[in-house]
Amino acid sequence: MTQADFMIDREQFSKLFPFFFLVDANMRVLQIGAVLARICPQFCVGQELNDHFSLFDLSKDRADRITPELISRRKAGIFIFKSASSDLSLRLQAMTLRDPERYLFLGSPWVRALKEMQLLQLVLNDFALHDSTVDLLQITQTNAISLKELIKEREDLFQLNKNLEQLVDKRTAELSLTNTELSRVMRSKDDFLSAMSHELRTPLNAILGLSESLAEGVYGDMNAKQIQSINTIAESGHHLLSLINDLLDLAKIGAGKMELELNNANVEDVCQASLRFVMEQAQTKKIILTLAMDNKSVTLTVDERRLKQILVNLLSNAVKFTPNGGSVTLETKCDVESESLVFSVRDTGIGIATEDLKRLFNPFTQLDSKLSRLYSGTGLGLTLVLKLVELHGGSVEVESDIGKGSCFSVRIPCKGLDVFTSDAAKQNKIAAAQEMSLKSLSENTPLILIADDNEINLRTVTDYLRANKLRVIQARDGLEAVKMVREHAPSLVLMDIQMPLMDGLDAIANLRADDKHAAMPIIALTSRAMVGDRERCIAAGANDYLSKPVNMKQLVKTIHTHLPKDETR
Amino acid sequence: MYGMVNKSVQALVTTNFGIDKWEAIKKKAGVKEDVFLSNESYPDATTYGLIGAATEVLGLSADEILFAFGEFWVLHTAREEYGDMLSSAGRNLSEFLEYLPMFHIRVALIFPNLKPPRFECSDLQADRITMHYYSHRPGLSVFVRGLFSGVAKLYNTPAQITQTKFKDKGDDHDEFLVYWGDAAKQ
Q1: For position A378, what pLDDT does the model report?
Q2: Is A290 exposed, middle or buried (0-12, 13-18, 19+ CB in 10 A)?
Q3: What is the DSSP track for A196-239?
Q4: Residue-wise DSSP of B42-96
Q5: Contacts of A139 in chain B (CB under 8 A)
Q6: Staple partner for A322: which of A1, A294, A349, A396, CB 3.0–4.6 Å?
Q7: Model pTM?
């Protein structure tokens, strides 16, 4: 390019350098850029530079007078000229022209923020397009906005976290309060149920006792209609009692107050006893009851009374929902793999639909409302079964086919027990236990055998006799009574008449047929108090006869009357 | 578009119609973001979706919303967050509009992912200017008219803005006549 190519006119020069000015050796202004002239109206041609600006020395933080010598000395550097009358500072480069007496200054205002531009009455368009000052200012401004935004987001997040923490704390406190209140309500509910059950049982005792006495003719003879009515009252009373008992048990379990009385129980005994409970009901419907055990000498550490409650509940249901002529089977099976004993109650009843199985263990659930009219029930039985099994650490499973029947399986864990030991070992153990039990009593104390299929009667009489210093052994049917007499040769037998497998009359006749037991006193106990009953008992071989409800004092007195003299107190 | 645009739509809705309407618009548009960052780039579809949903939720026409949004953008968002940049662009309406083409070029230098529209001006007179708007984004001419109206209000200059060319009617770009003469004051 030639020198001529660089020739530009004054207007073009002013556009390229809107803040330029030209001074002579006396520092007088010769020419000035349009924008600088606009923002510094007093700084015009003919004015002395030092009247308007001074040279700012960055290293010394002071302003100096501008002189040709100073310019010559520092011409390779940046000149910062500070205005004497405003905040304007110019960032300039000095150039010497061909005329050494003239100095040209090129540059632009020194601004560090867009806000400073406004104070100086400057707009973006005042700067030359090649000047990147404004771009840098805009970038700085944008970054400042981004930073401000990020700081705000951070603060918002921090606040959000804080609010969340507070919310969580608040909710936790509320939940804790709700839990406390819930526990209180649950306790109140359990206390209420417990109190109510007790209050209900007391008058119910009178209802049951009196209706039983009435039925037994204690208060005189009644006609058939009256007997039927009193039986209905008794049945309803028993139903109410079972409902109260179930409710009380559920409340106890719910409150965590039910404690299992764990003992070694003979599984066959428990099964037999449970079957006896439903025998009468099954006989009425001509249902065949079967017990199938894969090992008859199994003992299990359980709460015997509760296990019986579980089985009786399942058996009662099975009998209830099985049509006339069907069958109900109680099976027991040792599951070696899972170390548990499985009790299965299988029936040929109406069955349960698959979709109903999951509701089966909810309280007060009878799956079909039509069924509740057909089959009475508390609706608590299966709930209680499940809870009692769970208390034993076990589980309940159900399989069912509509119209074909159901099978309820209760699995009770028996880990670490000698359930799976040999029959012989088991027999030895039972015999040893029996022996220990007998040995604990004095050899001179009379031994009384009580034969009764009613658990309550059995327990009541047993307790009373033991309290009166008599040894007691028990049988729950006539067959067992005969067997135990042969084994233990008791001093006296209290024989109930209505019993399963073999009734009392047959059992007495059976014993009397054996010379060894011909002299053994037998007292018949029966709730049958009809004319001729006493005679039938005596004829069968009984020494005496007492009708239920029996007066306990009278019973003990009668026992002592019949005991051989050397065995009485 | 940059988050500042979506933020502005959010501010317009929440200021005038409440936070619930904004949440409803976001839900309708399928927008998941809780916060828009001004200098982050977002898909254009997000902005179009928000404006489309706003017409349904607020029961206003797209033109009404776009014009209001243009004015709001200048008078609230730009003034509050970019006030210094806005003020440095001109001392009056005329200067601002004249500098607008250069302003957008400079803005494009600052925001690398921004695809800003291009403005040109012609026929600058004492009381009017013709503004030419070129953009690859369709349907925003009413928004631009709202922007000019907002700028006029920013400089307290009563003005009439008339669209004289329409890209959606076959012209190669949109054109606006901005007039701030005495007739515009009445």
Answers
A1: 56
A2: exposed
A3: HHHHHHHHHHHHHHHHHHHHTTTT----HHHHHHHHHHHHHHHH
A4: --HHHHHHHHHHHHHHHT--HHHHHHHHHHHIIIIIIHHHSHHHHHTT-SSHHHH
A5: 110
A6: A349
A7: 0.48
User: How far B5 CA sits from the closest chain A CA (Å)?
Assistant: 14
What is the ipTM score, two decimals? 0.77
**Chain B neighbors of A150, CB-CB under 8 A:** 37
Which range (A237-241, A441-445, B112-116) has the least confidence?
A441-445
Q: Which of A308-317, A424-433, A528-537, A540-549 comes out lowest in average pLDDT?
A: A424-433
Question: Tokens 């806000």 map to which residue?
Answer: A115
Nearest to A124 among B82, B88, B109 (CB): B88
The rounded average pLDDT for each run of 10 residues, N- to C-terminus, in chain B (186 residues) is 84 91 93 81 89 92 90 86 84 93 84 83 94 90 93 93 93 95 76
Could you tell me which chain B residue has the CA closest to the CA of A139? B110
The DSSP 8-state label assigned to residue A380 in this structure reads -
- Tokens read off for A249: 């048990």
Q: Do B37 and A122 touch (CB under 8 A)?
A: no
Residue A48 per-residue DSSP state: B
Please state whether the peptide bond connecting residue A549 to the residue before it is cis, i.e. omega within 30 degrees of 0: yes
Tell me the percentage of chain A whose pLDDT exceeds 70: 87
Whether residues B35 and A153 touch (CB distance < 8 A) is answered with yes
A contacts of B107 (beta carbons < 8 Å): 138
Chain B residues with CB within 8 Å of chain A CB:
35, 37-39, 81-82, 84-85, 87-91, 95, 98-99, 102-103, 106-107, 109-111
Tell the burial category of A369 from Cβ atoms under 10 Å away from its Cβ (0-12, 13-18, 19+): exposed
Q: Mean pLDDT, to the nearest integer, of A234-256?
A: 76
Pairwise CA distance, residues B3 & B73, whole Å:
13
3-state secondary structure of A529: coil
Interface A-B: count of C-beta contacts within 8 A:
64
| Residue type, position B170, single letter | G
